[in-house]
Amino acid sequence: MKPLTTEEIRAVIAKGKFYDNLFKAVGVFCLAFALLVIVALIADMVIKGSERFTLDFFFNFASRRATEAGILSAWVGSLLVMLVTAMAAVPLGVAAGLYLEEYAKRNLLTNIIEVNITNLAAVPSIVYGLLALGIFVYQFGFGQSILSAGLTLALLILPIIIVSTREAIRAIPAMIREGSMAVGATRWQTCRFHIIPYAMPGILTGVIIGLARAIGETAPIITIGALTFIAFLPPVPFSAADAGTTAGLFDWLLSPFTVMPIQIFNWTSRPDPAFEVNAAAAGFVLMVMVLSMNAVAIYLRYQMRKKIKW
Amino acid sequence: MESPMQIQETPTLKAEARNLNFFYGENKALRNINMPIYDKKVTALIGPSGCGKSTYLRSFNRMHDLYPGNRYEGEIRFFPDNTNLLGADVDPIEVRMRIGMVFQKPNPFPKTIFENVAYGLRVRGETNKRVLEDKVEHALKGAAIWEEVKDRLPEQAPNLSGGQQQRLCIARALATDPELLLFDEPTSALDPIATGAIEELIHELKKRVTILIVTHNMQQAARVSDYTAYMYLGEMIEFGKTDEIFIKPQDKRTEDYITGRMG
């Protein structure tokens, strides 16, 4: 076979480059479309809700008059529910992930458990709501409370935290583990001094992504019976309560509550179109909450990764 | 009549492999190894890739116990107390507390220089700051790196150069006063100058600790070791004094390997 002439080589390259450029154009178009949709959604909420962006909106309770209705009980409720969710899901998820990676023997049972953790992540959230209604609300008698909601969402994001913990642990080179064990450390010493600290950036990312998902969940919270109209805050610990008693440290856990997505859902289902303004404004606030959680996750991961290199 | 030159001290036994077999699952990696390790001497393990020398080395501190499906047969006797390192009643952690290890690739922890060396002491429950500082300094001096790092102890260890990292890992192993120090090709990731420093260090170290070293580099084996073992396909082909092995190997396979006809 004769070698190609310069012209022929250039023709072949030009043909190849055509597909290069074609795909580049298609890719840019798809990316632009996706971004445009998000920007349009956010812009729509900002424009529709703009007249509600006042301090009053953040510090008013729900009201029958749209202009006076605010999101105080909703954002406080969301924060408190997230607190319970994090307190329950983080220790459980990290411990489970650590156990599966560092302690569990590889056998049929652990394989079944592994597959099912992935399956759990795919269970529709309403199913978690039904489960929680039966177990937390009725069986354990927690009622329609912040505690029930927080635990329900904790179950929902547990698989996310377990999976991200395991991935973070797997990214630690075997030679670090061996180096620790070689000086005579036990498994737990190795986990405590090395595995957990080095996996922390990855774990933290998983936790925040999980919480960002949980804060927007509506279905399971409705299922366990969050209130849609609420004009009081959960009791502050040791504050004055009825009849001269003071609230206990954990009374707020059993208080009725509402959360941001439910407040939004409630406003959109009102006949009075003025509430649509409130819904748009609250939607934007929720977006900002989720995006800033993600931003914190990215920042923390970056800061922590800088310190850890092998 | 014997000339004074030929009178030889009889070396003390520090460890001895007896009918040692090792299996990765079904795969037999070590075949009936019998070999002495002498006290305060450097013993080199040489042989082509995959001959089982690292597998053999890692049996001494029970590293294989970290992974499932591995199995030992036979014994490694450890003296003076005549413990069987592979015994079912012996905790691998106890073995690793007595036997230190330096790995092929420097593996400092992503912590400060000080914490890297102090780690073995912390694992043993030492919390006294004075004791830690003294022992860390002593270990860093022993690993010939004290002068380079004495002003940078709070710095992150992975910022050191490769050769410094490896000497730091040696200091980490020395800090807990091991009776036997295992080296698994400690210079294969280092440049010639750093390699020279490590070899010199090994020479110094054998005054206080018994050393078993795996090496790919025959010149290195000849330079640093007192005894050499040649391994091939999981078997111990020949063991003897290093100069005898290199000058007058008894086995044809050893000769082929060290003269470069095979390897």
Could you please describe the fold and organization of this structure?
The complex is a heterodimer of chains A (310) and B (263). Chain A is built from eleven helices and no strands. Chain A is an all-alpha fold and 310 residues long. Chain A folds into two domains: 6-52; 55-307, Orthogonal Bundle (MetI-like fold), CATH 1.10.3720. In chain A, helix 3 runs parallel beside helix 6 and helix 3 (72-103) packs antiparallel against helix 8. The radius of gyration of chain A is 25 Å and the shape is globular. The mean pLDDT of chain A is 91. Chain B has 263 residues and is an alpha/beta fold. Chain B has a single domain (11-258), classed as P-loop containing nucleotide triphosphate hydrolases (Rossmann fold). Chain B has helices at residues 53-60, 92-98, 113-123, 129-142, 146-149, 162-174, 192-205, 218-224, 242-247, 252-258; strands spanning 13-24, 27-38, 42-46, 70-78, 83-84, 99-102, 180-184, 210-214, 227-232, 235-241. In chain B, the strands form two sheets. A six-stranded mixed beta sheet of chain B has the order 6-7-8-3-9-10, sandwiched between helices. Chain B has a four-stranded antiparallel beta sheet with strand order 2-1-4-5, covered by helices on one side. In chain B, helix 3 (113-123) packs across helix 4. The longest helix of chain B is centred in the middle third of the chain and has 14 residues, at 129-142. The chains are: A mainly alpha (310), B alpha/beta (263). The interface between A and B is medium-sized, with 23 and 27 residues.
